[in-house]
Specification:
InterPro entries: ArAA_hydroxylase, ArAA_hydroxylase_Fe/CU_BS, ArAA_hydroxylase_sf, Aro-AA_hydroxylase_C_sf, Aromatic-AA_hydroxylase_C. It holds the Pfam family Biopterin_H. Belongs to the biopterin-dependent aromatic amino acid hydroxylase family. The chain has 305 residues and is of the alpha/beta class. The chain folds into 2 domains: 2-262, Aromatic amino acid hydroxylase (Phenylalanine Hydroxylase), CATH 1.10.800.10; 272-305. It has 13 helices and 8 strands. α5 (104-112) links the parallel β1 (94-97) and β2. The longest helix is centred in the last third of the chain and has 25 residues, at 280-304.
Length: 305
């Protein structure tokens, strides 16, 4: 009965969230001070020295596009509106400014709609290479580039979709999976370890530490990863290694199917909305849509061959 009550209340939360989700108002333009820009420049210069050897290939492919299209450089801090428009054109993700920390449930729910809640403040100039909490260097240098990658955007959204209507204990597991992938994920590329987590890609010290022989490495498995304890104010003693972004996505989808819900969730990319599937009629409509897509796929494959 307790589980049923949780699911019922969660269902109401899903409907409520769908009704009030961000409407897409213009993002605020921030005039940063000369001192703030200098701090950004210090972080930018030091990190960009490491990216070619430490970041995953997807990150290194996308970073020059942000330099070209969004004004990424050491002499000015890019504006959210430019970045959000670039991401929307690339994968449908958008940025939404937030003044403080959100609950895990609210933050993950944003990802379901391809909305990333981000801060616009910058760390104190006296410690440009360290921040105790996420700042704009973390958001723009750590997170943004990979949100322009379709496979990464998809698995990030899968975490969000899985969270909608999930009981609290599963929210904790999903938030932990987010921590060890989107924030502190490693992947193996051409037999070498590379970083793709934003917490690593925005930290000069931990980026180097994570690829050393000091931390413990484990293969990514949501069942195991979701139970892993972790520190917040020091380097991670353990990292989880992914084979690819698609591999992470498939494992997360499989894990999401174990979450007790009496309804399904589907994201409609055409309307940029989330549908709660709880009737046979909706499922029939979904099946028809999938059938139509498969017909297009078969027709195109025959043409290509």
């Amino acid at each position: 009965n307790n589980v049923k009550s949780i699911i019922s209340n969660s269902y109401k939360n899903v409907i409520g969230f769908i009704c009030v989700i961000y409407s897409g108002d213009p993002l605020p333009h921030i005039e940063y001070t000369e001192q703030e820009i200098k701090t950004w420049g210090t972080v930018f210069r030091e990190l960009t020295k490491l990216y070619p050897t430490h970041a995953c290939k997807e990150y290194n492919h996308l970073f020059p596009l942000l330099v070209e299209n969004c004004g990424y450089n050491e002499n000015s801090i890019p504006q959210f509106e430019d970045i959000s428009n670039f991401l929307k054109d690339s994968t449908g993700f958008t940025l939404r400014p937030v003044g403080g920390l959100l609950s895990s449930r609210d933050f993950l729910a944003g990802l379901a709609f391809r909305v990333f809640h981000s801060t616009q403040y910058i760390r104190h100039h006296s410690r440009p290479l360290y921040t105790p909490e996420p700042d704009i260097c973390h958001e723009l240098l750590g997170h943004v580039p990979l949100f322009a990658n379709p496979a990464f955007a998809q698995f990030s959204q899968e975490i969000g979709l899985a969270s909608l209507g999930a009981p609290d204990d599963y929210i904790k597991k999903l938030a932990t999976c987010y921590w060890f992938t989107v924030e502190f994920g490693l992947c193996r590329q051409d037999s070498e370890l590379k970083a793709y987590g934003a917490g690593l890609l925005s930290s000069i010290g931990e980026l180097q530490y994570s690829l050393s022989d000091q931390p413990e490495l484990k293969p990514f498995d949501p069942e195991v990863t979701g139970k892993q304890e972790y520190p917040i104010t020091e380097y991670q003693p353990t990292y989880f290694v992914a084979e690819s972004f698609d591999d992470v996505k498939e494992k997360l989808i499989k894990f999401a199917n174990t979450i007790p819900k009496k309804f399904g969730i589907r994201y409609n990319p055409y309307t940029q909305s989330v549908q709660v599937l709880d009737s046979k009629l909706q499922l029939q409509e979904l099946a028809n849509n999938i059938s139509n897509e498969l017909q297009i796929l078969r027709y195109t494959l025959n043409k290509v061959e």
